[in-house]
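Example 3.2
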Amino acid sequence: MRVLLHQTKRLLGTLRPSLIVFLAVLGLSAVWSTAAWTSTASASSGTQMTVGLVEFSSTSPIDKLFAQVSEAQLKKDGYHVLAQDPLGNTANANQICTEFIAAHVNALAITTFAWDQMTTCEAEAKAAHVPMFFVGSPLLTGMAGAVDTTSAKPINDLFIKYVLAHHVTNVFALDYSPGTPCLLRARYREQLLKAEAPKVQLTSHQFPIPGQVVDAQTATAAWLQAHPVGAGTYVIWSCYADPTDGALAALAEAGRNVPIFTWDFNMTLYNPIKEAKVAADLYLDPFGVGKQQAAQVNAWLHGNHKRQFVNGTTDVLTPGNVVQFIKANPIAKTA
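Structure, written as tokens:
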């Protein structure tokens, strides 16, 4: 040992001071680079770790189910979970996230909010080296993992085919830009209409959360009054199940039948699909999505720091297949 120390001192004595400083900084940089992507503890260390779960809104059944399943799976995997509901409010979501980071969580699980809506959270998480996992988004720079529930193409592709085949003149869209899935579904819809049906008149209504069902019903009723039977050929586009329920209520009250294209199946849409009041709906497996997010968090906290992306499991439901689908997938009845 004495010989080794003596040799080390001799070596350092031959180096210029500037080179010694460079080597020291290089070593610190390597440590910092690793720390930036590593939680402060490992799940394999025996210490229980904590995950901060930022929900979306308890008034949105599918988003609530995403969060519930993710939380249950994370607890089953041995994690302590802090969970709060921001009621769809971006400022609340960022505040909750900041509080979780202050509580020294080891990871953050974000439901449905877009990356660019969580800028305060993102900055705090980056500074604290806390990985962030998103449900409802493609994998973007800065995310440790994402489960994409956008699935913009399947329904929109059927929608544009219907528009062209039936010479649709007017489309009423129920949109929600603060939610990543709704935003990206709407963007793809607009691309298709611009490219393939530029003369179609599109009316877009932004509904709030909470209050999405009642607001969608009121907005649809007003649109129907402004677009009477015989004045054109109509279609309703709804970004997910809740506003679709509102649109269906307005149609029933007016005694009208306008086909709806939508996402995120639940059993309130079973009969409307079977009766062709809803032309197409995308079933998104909320149980699978919640478990997919939990699996990404678990893998990361066990040392696998490869950024992870997966699409949520989906099925397109139409009047021709919905009965058989429910028979083959009874778990969908609980969605």
